[in-house]
Amino acid sequence: MTGPAGIGKAALTAFASVNCQSSTDELALFAWRAARLCQVLTMLDFGGPTPRFPPR
Question: What integer pLDDT is reported at residue 3 of this predicted model?
């Protein structure tokens, strides 16, 4: 299944698999996953054409 319906079903399945029992649990899990993703992306060094941090 693709499209918005498929995304919704996948999200519900992901929350059900970790035993979320309320919408508060789902929100906390979503916030934790978003924060963790930000941490991981911040730690990656892609080394693109422009420096990530200005030289000192």
Answer: 77
